[in-house]
Design goal:
alpha+beta, eight-stranded antiparallel sheet, 4 helices, about 35% helix
Length: about 190
């Protein structure tokens, strides 16, 4: 009990003499943390910027690009078709390599590496048809007919799915998904 009184008295003396200074210091520190946190939040890079950053890190051909939160997941196939890298591009444009394989079957990647229209050109074509923000680009040759699948989120919140011809760059099919990704259906 006696010890509690001494601690309480010592605390009271510190608060009386240093209280206003301590409060001002804490307020200044809080303001500094808030300013630093605000400055640390960089602008989101676009799909085009993410593709360029990934290709600078691992030269080749973009096979797919997908926005997940603030991070772009980019798959790149080497120009000879034998290499493959899985990369992540942060909101600041920093690239990290998640996986790399040099044993790909070049024959399986021949259509992609030989395509006249790149992922970057497919994005440009899709954006010309439907202005907005590209959220996904994917090479699709599963059914024997190669095309670029590009998703664009419009300013109206709708997601546009476009198929871009890898030879001509023309948007051959485009559908609107009336439900945006923000509707919560995918978040259980």
């Amino acid at each position: 009990m006696k010890r509690t009184r001494y601690v309480s008295a010592a605390t009271a003396v510190v608060l009386m003499t240093g209280g206003p200074v301590a409060v001002a210091t804490a307020a200044a520190a809080d303001t500094t943390r808030t300013a630093a946190a605000t400055a640390a939040v960089p602008a989101q890079v676009t799909a085009q910027e993410a593709a360029a950053a990934a290709l600078k890190h691992y030269p080749g051909v973009v096979e797919s690009l997908d926005l997940d939160g603030a991070v772009w997941h980019v798959d790149v196939i080497s120009k000879d078709g034998k290499g493959h890298a899985e990369l992540e591009v942060s909101a600041s444009g920093a690239v990290t390599q998640q996986n790399r394989d040099n044993n790909e079957n070049a024959a399986e990647n021949k259509a992609l590496t030989g395509a006249k229209v790149s992922a970057e050109q497919a994005m440009k074509a899709a954006l010309a048809a439907h202005p907005g923000q590209v959220t996904t680009v994917e090479w699709d040759d599963d059914d024997g007919t190669a095309s670029w699948h590009v998703e664009v989120k419009g300013k109206d919140g709708k997601t546009w799915d476009a198929q871009v011809d890898p030879t001509t760059g023309k948007v051959t099919q485009s559908d609107s998904d009336s439900d945006s990704d923000d509707d919560g259906d995918d978040n259980n």
